[in-house]
What we know:
Layout: H1 8-34, H2 38-49, H3 59-84, H4 90-98, H5 104-120, H6 126-136, H7 143-157, H8 168-176, H9 192-212, H10 222-244, H11 251-269, H12 272-285, H13 288-293, H14 295-303, H15 311-326, E1 329-330, E2 333-334, H16 341-355, H17 361-378, H18 383-399, H19 410-426, H20 436-442, H21 447-464, H22 471-480, H23 482-485, H24 499-512, H25 520-534, H26 539-560, H27 570-590, H28 596-611, H29 617-634, H30 639-655, H31 661-676, H32 681-692, H33 694-697, H34 711-726, H35 731-750, H36 758-773, H37 779-807
Helix pairs in contact: 1-2, 1-3, 2-3, 2-5, 3-5, 4-5, 5-6, 5-7, 6-9, 7-9, 7-10, 9-10, 9-11, 10-12, 11-12, 12-15, 15-17, 16-17, 17-18, 17-19, 18-20, 19-21, 21-24, 24-26, 25-26, 26-27, 26-28, 27-28, 28-29, 28-30, 29-30, 29-31, 30-31, 30-32, 31-32, 32-34, 32-35, 34-35, 35-36, 35-37, ...
Amino acid sequence: MYDNPGNATDQEKFLDQSIRVVKAESFEMKRCLDKGKTMDALKHALQMLNEMRTSELSPKFYYRLYMDTMHELQCLEVNLIQEFAQEPSKLSNLYECVQYASAIIPRLYLLVTIGGVFIKCGLGSRKEILKDLVEMCRGVQHPLRGLFLRNYLMQCTRSVLPDFPETEEMLLSHNSTLPKGTPQLKPRDGTVEDTIDFVLINFGEMNKLWVRMQHQGPSKEKEKREKDRLELRILVGTNLVRLAQLEALTEEMYVRDVLPSILEQIVSCRDTISQEYLMECVIQVFADDFHLATLNEFLNACGQLQQEVNIKILLIALVDRLALYTNSSIEGQPAPTKMQLFEIFSEQATNLIKNRPDMPMDDIVALHVSLVSLAVKCYPDRLDYANMTFLGLRQVIEEKGITDIEAFGKVGRELTKLLHIPIDEYKNVLRLSELPEYIKVMNYFDYRGQCNIAAYMVQNMLEQETILRHQEDVDAAFSLISALLKDQEKQPESSHETEEFADEQNLVARLLHLIRADDVDSQFLLLNSARKVLGEGGRHRLRYTLPPIIFELYRLVLQFADMKDEDEKWDVKIRKMFVCAMGTIGALVSTAELAELPMKLYLNGAITADRVLFEDNHTVVYEFVSKALSILEDDVVDSRDRVRCLQLTVGTLLKTTHLPEENWQPLANQTVLAAAKMFKKPDQVRSLVTVASLYWHGETLETNGDKMRNGKKVVDILRRSAKIARECLEPLVQQQLFIQLLSAYIYYYEDKCAEINVDHIEELISRTQDNAVQLDVSAEADNLEKQLGETIHRLQLAKIDVAASQVASPRTEPDLPQPPSENEGL
């Protein structure tokens, strides 16, 4: 094809030599044109065009030489048009003289150039000149040179090709109907049909030259030739683009003349590269309604292509384009008839898979991706079309014996695209339950693939706010995402340790909040049924999926609380909701083997039950708090966790206001006991200080909204705390505890706790000051000394306030100050 390919450096060298000649000759050519010496200018043009005969350059470098040369030829064309616009007769001699050039490549380039000038100046028959030029170009059969020559022919004649629909018979018929005296239309020089013939001839010859490149040269350079051919493919495709741009091209002409000629050329060339590229060009460049009119002919031609041609790409491109076209609307009206597109393409895909048993599985799935896209987008109401596609794919998978498709492999990526299409297009995941084959195809994925698709469904439901109002909706949703709800056979043992597992279970937890029935009774039944399904998910899933059910039950209780007068069984139903919540929390303890989470849920349930005044609500509150204390004692092991959980328990008891004294006291005593049983003595002290607030700010049913104000019990607990603090052996820690105790004493003293003795506080201050002397010099010791000073100052202010209040007249009790925090004074 070219004699001396060489390396890039050699090619650059040959190109530079040729370009220098082109520039030198073009300079002389322009000088002669400026002096009016046209013949001399043509001689220099011939010398310049001699460089196009080179065999030293590869297609890539030959193209660069071609572009520089064409630029100079355009300058020649412009000058000739300007010179002979006034005297067109001189062009005839020029056209004759050029044909005597000895070398065919320069001669034909000049003939094409002057032929274009001839047409633009209005001389001769445009139809005959075009026919003459396209036939003369047959004289160059070298693939590379011939391709560029014919491409130059298309470029030069692009603006002069006839694009008029009238034929001579049509003009005669039109003129015969005109009244006398009316100017008649003159026959135009060529019609669109002449242009079609011209372009089709040029296209056929260029394709032959392009294919011939594959068979020239040694077999070891086959890959290089294929690469070169791919670089030149756009030269051939330009012909099809020009045909598609003809405004006068009608559907009838396309069906009768254009497509049959193109398909005949493509099929007869028997070249894989050519067939694949040109068929794709046909799909992309011609109008959609043309494709609809010739769909069967095009698909029949696809069946005649070489076995190596990737027909999958062609069918996918055609399906996607027609699906988009038929699904569009113009001014609110549907696009032209959809015909039976799905049936046609489905049958074609089935035959293709059957006739090509070696077709890769990822190509088969990709083909079904386009079919599903067509079915879902163009026929949204025909669920049977989509289901039929999934059925066909499942049968192919079974025939090939595939049982486990990797999520991130080639087949897996295509299958993911396939399964995403109905989710995205229907915008309602519940419709997938009407596609029984969908789930069967999804089950061919490995565990990770199934989870990815299920998570994508949940994400879509959350984005679209797909509400689950009925039991059928819940069952359908859970069936589709079962891979996320239960352990699977393909599930790896360590899958629950991954971030993906946690993210997916959090999505499921969010989904549960979309269960919203139309009434309270139905909502309870839906939550109860969901709880049963989720309860089978295994211990690792329960920590994510059961808490949303519990909180939905609490929300339902609060919603139902305002309907007491509307339901005779109000008390029974409220109690039943709490029993369901308690049982669900119990599963977190027994099955999921959790401690802190169920304890928090128990405490939250106690607060919720205390807000709803139903029969025996105090029993429910007592049961929730007692179970939380039981978990604190038996299952919470870490010291810091125990302290935190105890604080939550104290906060819950302070929040409850409707417990009878007989129920409140055992819970409070048990809380004090739990505080005293802390493993570390500093934790015991801090916890007891926290618990003491129960007997000062706590409320029971008997107090009628007033605080308990049991100063004697508060003082007993604080003295017990001080005794434990004195037993601490670390001076620094002991000092911290003393300061915290002082803060607690002063707080209750400020709050008018009569049982607090100032002398006892001052004694504790004295002990704290003595202890400060024993501390080693350090930044922390200095900080504690500063805190102690602030505490003493606070006591002095408190004494002044108490003394003033005793002198002043009685007044309304002020709002209580906030209790000291755990770390106050540290």
